[in-house]
Structure formats: structure tokens, C-alpha cells
TrEMBL record:
A Pfam family of this chain: Cmr2_N
InterPro entries: Cas10-Cmr2_palm2, Cmr2_N, CRISPR-assoc_Cmr2_N, CRISPR-assoc_prot_Cmr2, GGDEF_dom, Rev_trsase/Diguanyl_cyclase
Gene Ontology biological process terms, A to Z: defense response to virus
Gene Ontology MF terms in the entry: nucleotide binding
Name the record gives this protein: GGDEF domain-containing protein
Start and end residues of each GGDEF domain: 302-449
Organism: Methanosarcina mazei
Length: 587
């Protein structure tokens, strides 16, 4: 038996996951790829004499789309081919089972769409102990070369394209009648409109994402929350469940969390979504909930956040660039230890992001994608960064080298197209990683997409020496909030509006303002004027003045420090605008 270093990848990743109209699509795409990677690992162990998985950690539920293992076998080419065919057949079985359970037939072109989706690659290199570092580098080089040769299958499809991917022909549709250019498609019956709306058409691939719950039972979240539900998670968790259940029962199987917003309780909306309830009566039923919510200071937010977090310089860490030993003789040990740490972190992420804080799409170790309720965005961001594993704890890491992670966040209305939200979240993650010319990264970037079309973007490092950016942002938001739902918050957000009015016209094309001392003087003046703090019961005038002056001085000092660290004045003002937006509950 010979020993080989074996690498296997399952794709496509970004396009398959990103092609989503519903949060369920996004989750299902990730789950399917993770499942195929997981069963490939399981199958490999049955095909070879010995299999030692190096990456990823076997305990991670959301397996990445690639894995590396040390195997012993006689014919690696046979193993790779069998594994390739096994994964391809597994995906076909999943799709066929979904069609069967929906009581549908597979139309012409079904098999072609399924078989042409997956992009599977494998590489096997023979090696002996002591050669791991060089073979790992060679493995990565070969993978890059293989992926550069783009294989494609040419086939013609004439007709209406899928509502989800826009690439393949519609083979299945929802609604009472066929739409234009859908001739041989199968109608999906007896399914709630929240799964497929009237007139929506799906290809075979996107059907497997939308209805993956018909095949998977274990570990699959069959009732993944919608973006509307994520926006309302905190509020709904604090309301009487019996009150909510009564409202849901009024709609029966047609219920969707969008019905918590009165703007959707219209005849037009009900007809479009096949809801049989009376809109006027629905408004009265909803009023029972909203009245109680208002009395307790709860808001029905229409905005949520999509968060991407990714370890910085992971390629360099995996290559051994940051190891003390120049020969990288302990690279395999490092990979085993690294995999274990990332596995622990992946599990921790799911502990951090739970209802009502949000829900994880996937947590693969060094990368995270999650929907977050806006009320918990900042604490979740802070906790995810603080728990990211410290690779410098390993004895063989170069002195001075530290692991870090960058985060991209998009705050959007629940009706904003999900593909656009995901694109912005990825874009902000990229901007966070591009913040430092010295490639230190370790930053976060937030984009706020308002329904009006206005966009705020801000990028900052997590920390500047002793200054914690998230803590300052959270402190500012708390000062703008009304304590105990009283009418007067400690500070008015008027100072943010004034700063925007005064300095937007003074900034140059790069968003900078040369006279920073003047800006610093003005922000101090405006914060002082916006203070609305009142005396506490039993507090003397002297104590009140001292507390007020200290609060003003503290927040002014911290905001000025962030302004000095900001890449531009425009970037800093966007940070303030983001704080105001989050505080207002985004209604």
C-alpha cells in the first residue's frame, strides 16, 4: 500500500449559494454542498485502507466544500473516480426523491440540468513522512491549475428561465396556470405559497434547494425563518406566545411573518399570495398585538442584518508562512491543531447566534454566514470576533504573528432582494479586508441599504490600541435610546444631522476635510447641545452636573478618537449615521 495526500472539492460554491430569493434558498444551498462534502468524506473512508482526515474537523456540521486527507491505497485514480461518481449520483438521488415526494414527474431536461451542475475536482499526490509541507504546497498549486481550466457543458434550452438562478429553463412552476414559454413544465400542487409563489418557476437544481426539506429530515432546518421573521425575532420572543398563535391560526397554512406588518394586510397582497382571510378583519386581529407591543415599547422592525465573517490570511496560515520553523517540518501538526481549533469555533458560533439573536446559515470554521436581528447585531459581532481562535497560542507560531478575522455586514429591509443583500455583505467583507495597506486587516464594514435608496457605508478596525470601536458604537446607541421607554433619551441624534449638514458640502472628492481641529471643536459643541440628561431622583444639582459633564466628555473623547482613526470624515459620519439608524429600530 502506498500513502497519498488526497484533496477533494465540491462546487460551484458562490453561485450555487448566492442564487436565492428566500432565506431558505440560501440555507439550503449551503446545506446541500455541506452534505455532499460530508458524505464524500464518509465514502472515502470506506474505499481506502486507511484515512486520516486533516481538514476540516469531523465535528463541524457545516462542512466546507473541500477536504484534505492522508490515505493509503493501491490505485488513487480509481478512488478519485469512484468518489466523483458517488457524489454525482448522491445529488441526483436527492433531486429525484424530492420530485417523487412532491408527486411530480421529471420533465425532459431534468437529468441534464442535474448532471451538469456539480463541479468536482480531486488530486492525489504520493508522499512519505517528512514531505508534507512540500506536497501540501504542490497540492494547492495543482488545484489552482485544475480550476483555471474551466470545463463547460454546451446544451441548448429555449424558453422561460428559472426565477431563482436565471440560467436554466423552468421545469416546475407554482400557481394556477402556466406562464409564457413554459410548455412541458410540471405544476407543483398542494404546497403553501410561502414555498413557491404564483407564477414562480424553478429549474431542477433550484427545486432541490427550495424543497430540500422534503428529502432531509435529520439536521436540516425545514422551517428556516424568513427575512421578515429575522427582523422581528426579538419582538416576537417578548410577546405572549398564545396571542401570536391566535393570530397565526387566523391564517392557517397561509401564514407568513410578513403578515405582522399592516402594509401587507391588503386585498391585493392577499390575492397575490393566495391568502383566503379577510384583510379588514386581519387588521383588527393584528391591532391586538401591536397595541400590546406599543405599551411595552416593542417595535416591529422591518430591517435585519446579514453577516459574513472570515479569517484573515488563512491561505498564508495554512501554507505555514507564519510558522517559526522555516522548513515547515511541523506543518502537518499545525494543520491538525488548527483544524481542531476551527472546529471548536464553528460549534461556538452556533451557540452565539441563536434565536432571538439570529440564525446561522453556515459556520465552516474560519468563515461564518448568518442572519442577525438588528437589536443584537453589535454584541454578536463583538462576540464572534472575540472567540475567533488565536493561532499565536501554538508553540510553533512566529513571535508577533496573530490571527484575526474581518467581518462584512449588510443591513437591509426584509423585502430587499436577497441576492442584492448577499452581494453587499460580501462586498463589505472585502472592504474590511482591504482597510489596511500593511495587510493587517482585522476590521469590520457595515452597509445600510435604506428603502429610500440611500446607502451608508463605514469601515473600521475592531480596535485601535485601547479603543474598542464596537463598544463605542454600542455606547453611542445606548445614549440615543430612551431609558425604560421614557420619552427623553440622554442625547438627541440632532448632533449627527447637524454634522452631516455642515460638513457634507465641505469635504473633498475623497470624503476628507483638511481642518480637522475645526471639526473636533464643532462635534464637541454639538454633542454638548444635544444632551438632554435629566436629574435622577434624590440626585443633587452638583452630582447631576458632574455626571452630565463626565458623560459628555467621555463620549466626545471617544468619538473624536474614532474620527482621527477613520480613513475619511465621510467614513466617520457614516458610522454615526449607522448608529442612528440602528437606534431608531429601523422602522
Amino acid at each position: 500500500m502506498s500513502q497519498f495526500l488526497f484533496l477533494f472539492t465540491v462546487g460551484p460554491v458562490q453561485s450555487f449559494i448566492a442564487q436565492a430569493r428566500k432565506s431558505q434558498d440560501l440555507y439550503s444551498g449551503s446545506f446541500l454542498l455541506s452534505h455532499l462534502s460530508d458524505i464524500a468524506i464518509y465514502k472515502l473512508k470506506t474505499l481506502v485502507s486507511s484515512c486520516d482526515l486533516i481538514f476540516p474537523n469531523k465535528e463541524i456540521a457545516s462542512k466546507p466544500n473541500r477536504f484534505i486527507a492522508k490515505i493509503e491505497c493501491e490505485d488513487p485514480e480509481k478512488i478519485g473516480s469512484e468518489l466523483h461518481n458517488f457524489v454525482q449520483n448522491e445529488y441526483r438521488k436527492i433531486c429525484e426523491d424530492i420530485v417523487t415526494k412532491l408527486n411530480l414527474n421529471a420533465p425532459e431536461g431534468f437529468n441534464q440540468q442535474i448532471d451538469y451542475l456539480l463541479d468536482l475536482h480531486w488530486i492525489a499526490l504520493d508522499f512519505e513522512e517528512g514531505e508534507y509541507a512540500s506536497k501540501f504546497s504542490e497540492l494547492e498549486s495543482y488545484l489552482g491549475a485544475v480550476k483555471n481550466i474551466r470545463r463547460f457543458h454546451q446544451f441548448q434550452e429555449a424558453g422561460r428561465k428559472c426565477s431563482l438562478c436565471g440560467e436554466r429553463n423552468v421545469l416546475f412552476y407554482g400557481g394556477a396556470r402556466k406562464r409564457a414559454h413554459v410548455h412541458e413544465a410540471e405544476r407543483i400542487n398542494n404546497v403553501s405559497n410561502k414555498f413557491i409563489s404564483d407564477g414562480e418557476g424553478l429549474c431542477a437544481v433550484c427545486l432541490s434547494k427550495r424543497f430540500a426539506g422534503r428529502h432531509f429530515k435529520k439536521k436540516y432546518h425545514s422551517d428556516y425563518p424568513s427575512t421578515a421573521e429575522i427582523a422581528l425575532m426579538d419582538t416576537l420572543s417578548k410577546l405572549d406566545s398564545s396571542l401570536l398563535n391566535d393570530y397565526k391560526s387566523f391564517f392557517g397554512k397561509d401564514f407568513d411573518e410578513q403578515l405582522y406588518f399592516k402594509d401587507n394586510l391588503t386585498k391585493k397582497y392577499f390575492e397575490k399570495n393566495g391568502i383566503k382571510a379577510d384583510p379588514e378583519i386581519s387588521l383588527k386581529e393584528l391591532a391586538k398585538i401591536t397595541n400590546i407591543a406599543e405599551q411595552t415599547g416593542l417595535k416591529f422592525s422591518t430591517y435585519y442584518a446579514l453577516l459574513c465573517l472570515d479569517g484573515d490570511n488563512m491561505g498564508k496560515w495554512l501554507s505555514g508562512k507564519f510558522l517559526e520553523d522555516k522548513d515547515k517540518s511541523n506543518l502537518m501538526d499545525f494543520h491538525f491543531d488548527l483544524t481542531k481549533k476551527l472546529g471548536t469555533y464553528a460549534i461556538k458560533v452556533k451557540d452565539i447566534v441563536q434565536n432571538p439573536k439570529g440564525i446561522v446559515v453556515y459556520s465552516g470554521g474560519d468563515d461564518v454566514l448568518a442572519f442577525i436581528n438588528l437589536d443584537y447585531l453589535l454584541p454578536v459581532m463583538k462576540e464572534l470576533r472575540e472567540h475567533f481562535p488565536a493561532f499565536e497560542e501554538f508553540s510553533y507560531t512566529k513571535q508577533g504573528e496573530k490571527s484575526s478575522a474581518s467581518c462584512g455586514v449588510c443591513i437591509a429591509h426584509y423585502k430587499t432582494p436577497l441576492q442584492e443583500v448577499l452581494t453587499w455583505a460580501r462586498k463589505m467583507e472585502h472592504e474590511a479586508k482591504s482597510i489596511d495597506d500593511n495587510a493587517k486587516k482585522d476590521a469590520f464594514a457595515i452597509a445600510v441599504l435604506k428603502r429610500s435608496g440611500e446607502i451608508h457605508k463605514t469601515v473600521f478596525n475592531w480596535k485601535y490600541e485601547t479603543l474598542d470601536t464596537i463598544e463605542v458604537l454600542a455606547e453611542l446607541i445606548s445614549l440615543l435610546k430612551s431609558p425604560n421607554n421614557s420619552e427623553t433619551p440622554p442625547f438627541s441624534d440632532s448632533f449627527v444631522n447637524k454634522l452631516n449638514e455642515e460638513f457634507n458640502l465641505l469635504m473633498n472628492d475623497e470624503g476628507n476635510y483638511s481642518e480637522f481641529p475645526l471639526f473636533e471643536t464643532e462635534i464637541k459643541r454639538l454633542i454638548n447641545r444635544s444632551c438632554m440628561m435629566v436629574k435622577n431622583t434624590g440626585e443633587s444639582e452638583t452630582e447631576y452636573r458632574s455626571r452630565k459633564d463626565q458623560t459628555i466628555a467621555d463620549i466626545t473623547e471617544k468619538l473624536c478618537a474614532l474620527a482621527r482613526e477613520s480613513r475619511s470624515l465621510e467614513n466617520f459620519l457614516s458610522l454615526l449615521n449607522t448608529a442612528v439608524f440602528i437606534e431608531r429600530g429601523s422602522n
